[in-house]
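FIELD: query
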Amino acid sequence: MKFFRLLTPFLLTIVAVLCFAPAAWAFCGFYVAKADTKLYNKASQVVIARDEERTVLTMANDFQGEVKDFAIVVPVPTVLQKEQVRVTEPKIIERLDAFSAPRLVEYFDSDPCAVTDSVNLPAAAPRSRAVSQEAEKTSDRSLGVTVEARFNVGEYDIVILSAKESGGLETWLKRNGYKIPRGAKQLLKPYIRSSMKFFVAKVNLDKFEKSGYQFLRPLQISYQSPKFMLPIRLGMINATTEQDLIVYILSPQGQAEITNYRTVKIPSNTNIPLFVKDEFGEFYKSMFQTVYTKEDRKVGFLEYAWDMSSCDPCSADPLTQDELKQAGVFWLDDNSGSNLPASPSFRRPSPKNNVFISRLHVRYSRDKFPEDLIFQQTANSESFQGRYVLQHPFQGELKCQAGREYKQSLPKRFEQEAQTLAKLTNWNIQDIRNKMKLSIGNLTYSWWDNLLSWVGLY
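FIELD: result
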């Protein structure tokens, strides 16, 4: 069986293309596209729901290949029991992506000759075991490896390991049928030195066949630890290019940020030319690469931050309480703590009902991100989203003085949009002007040819 869709955070992803969202009306404008994770062909997704020292981590990605070849090794801060591991549905990751993705919004100028209190301008950016078990244990001890737990969850066989040295752990994994890439030994060392454990999962083929699923589901783990971090170094072993990582952090407080690398906001709330409506995917990728390069390729970007109890505007409906619980949120008032793992390390949290989402986008490589990501929660509840505006000119007759002034203001506005787009994407300014000429030329203005000559597009 080939090409099963797997959602886990440190493996290769399938090539995908941009999907456009259905138009949805919002504050005098409507959304026409979003920059979701389908833009990237190597984009891992991770959901972290955290309150105080309690964490629920959902690992999501896309995997191509024989399902029998799938296995992951993830460093974790504590020994996990079966009750702390479960599988969930990929739909939850898709919902978070749709809700928080940077988006393109469209507005239409009102008639400047109409008597109104305000002009319809864009709103401000919202905020069979081969040996006996005893012989196996003896062999494990000789390698300095201890099997702390072994169990099955859904279609996965899971082992929790501790190790004294990386060479022994590498040997154990190979002896037990795990295909470990070259270079793993060196990258495993720092995790062993910091006494971390290793969550190792592979597919139980019989259970997978009986399950009836056509894809491998996301794995979700729950634990308590003061360490608020995400291991990314093991994901770089086989990497030949930069990789994208989208982290959705759910918190009862406010924005989350990376502490060992700078966290900066993605450029937002800018007016760009109308033709970008048909090229939004390429626009966002170019813009992200431009600002990523400008920041010396070693920052994390905030793409969205919002209280999930509401949104204005919404490109997708906010997640329901049931969906939030599936995403790992355990502190909701409704049956608070009911979906926590039956583990003594997870006590019932105090009643809370708020959920704040931070969407962080990290493009990382071995030389620019030598450390795992360390996060912190903040009390900052300011709303933010990556948002880009198409502003359509009014197309009716303009016979009043305000209309004539409006018409005269358009060339400067169009040129500013062209300059903004060039700065954001590093695209050639003359190519941008030529594309603007084609898109604007489709509009039926009796005075349009003169306007185009004023703005320098002819």
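FIELD: remark
Confidence is low (pLDDT under 50) at residues 1-28, 117-131, 335-351, 442-458.
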